[in-house]
Each structure stands twice: as C-alpha cells, then as structure tokens.
Amino acid sequence: MNLIDRMREDIQAVFDHDPAARTKLEVVLTYPGLHAIWLHRIAHFLWQHDLKLIGRMMSAFSRFLTGIEIHPGARIGRRLFVDHGTGVVIGETAEVGNDVLIYQGVTLGGTSLRKEKRHPTIEDQVMVSAGAAVIGPVRIGRGSRIGAGAVVVSSAPPYSTIVGIPGKVIEGESTRQDIVELDHARLPDPVARAMNGLVEKLNQIGVRLEEIEERQDCLEDKLLPHEPPSNGAVGKDPAH
Q: What is the spatial distance between Cα 108 and Cα 99, in angstroms, rounded to a whole number?
C-alpha cells in the first residue's frame, strides 16, 4: 500500500469514528490527531533508519503542533484515530494495533528504567477512553474497551471492559464482540460490587451464627440436669 492510500485510510478512520466530521478538507486541516499520526510515521521512518535525533526532533515538533506526544520508536498500526488528542502520550516501546480508538488525555506509559519492553501492547480494535492510563508491558486483548480514568496495570483478555483504579475486568463482557461504544453511565462499579458481595457474605455468616446459637441452646437444654425441687414448700415453717 502506497503513502496516498494509507493517508486515505487515516482520513476514512476519522469519518468512521467521529460523527462531527463533515468534509475531507475539514478533517485534513483541523484534526490534530490525524496530523500527529502522519508526523509520527515520518518520525518513525527516521528512527528506524538510524536518524534518531532527527526523528526525536520531528516528534517534538509534532507535540508542539498537536499536543500529542508519540515517541518515534512506538509502533502504530493502521487506521488509528486519536480523538481530540490533547495530552495523549505514547511511549517508546508501545505497540498499537489496527483500528484503535484513543481519546484525549490517554497515557500508554512505562514503569521500568531499563532498556527493555516497558510500554503496553494494544491489540486491534481497542478503545481507550479519556484520561485512561495503561502502564507497563501489559497486553490489552483485541476488541477491549477501557473506561475513562481507568489505570490499567495488568493484561486483559480479548473483548474485555476494564474500569477503575487499578483497572478491573468486568465479568460477562468477553462475548460482546460487536460493541464499539462504551456507555459510562451504565458501567458497574467494581468496588461497589465487591462491597455488596462482602455485605452479602457477612449477612450469610450472621444467619449461620444465629442457627448455631439456637442449636447450642437446644443441646444445653437436653444435656444439663434439672435442679431438684427444694425440700418443703417455699415459706413453710420447718417445725411443722
């Protein structure tokens, strides 16, 4: 695929993901996410051909122009769409697959200071919502969705929905392969779910303890001897 075809793909990705896009000219002139990806491709080419300083300079120029920082060493797949984009940071060893959607304020960051794979791998068709951070050499499976503000520090299987700090995979989402949008208003709270489970467990323990106490009382009634009646009637004069 030549350069022109790849650029057309990138433009079409904007129309596929952003209902606000109206014309191709508007997209080419006003979408910083698109500019950042095009400039990154140049910077990455320079980086791969051992022109690392020029690649870093191109990356710095792209950050100045768009507010999006993508290290020239990062590997970016086809049809990536960075919506709005301000504050997006993608580290050197990050790998992003095809048809990925990233919103503003997203960080694909590292935790290690060693020269190794220290940034995440984002597989195809993943959506990363605004303000989310994926940290370390974790792998986010194909078709997954990361909720706004989540901090993901462990890998997730394909078609997961991940929310919270630290990010937790919501159960029962693995079969929902046809959904791209993420309705944050309906997302369950994993912390509240855990607390509700704990309260339910405590209630079960309380009921069980009451049953044990009742059984213990019954056993005591059966095993303990009854006190013998006292000699004579209560209040009767012993002389009579």
A: 16
Domain count for the chain: 2
Its pTM surpasses 0.70:
yes
Cα–Cα distances in Å, from 118 out to 20, 42, 85, 96, 108?
35, 23, 23, 14, 10
Taking the C-alpha atoms of residue 89 and residue 25, their distance in angstroms, rounded to an integer, is 26
Residue ranges making up the domain that contains 118: 3-183
12-21: pLDDT as tens digits: 999 999 899 8
User: Is 18 inside a domain boundary?
Assistant: yes
Each residue's pLDDT tens digit, 106-155: 999 998 888 889 999 999 999 999 999 999 999 999 999 999 999 999 99
**Residue 112: half-sphere exposure toward Cβ, Cα within 13 Å:** 13
Whether residue 227 is contained in a domain is answered as: no
The DSSP bridge pattern shows strands 168-169 and 161-163 to be antiparallel
Q: Phi/psi of residue 152, each to 5°?
A: -100, 120
44 located within any domain: yes
**CA pair distance 152, 120, nearest whole angstrom:** 10
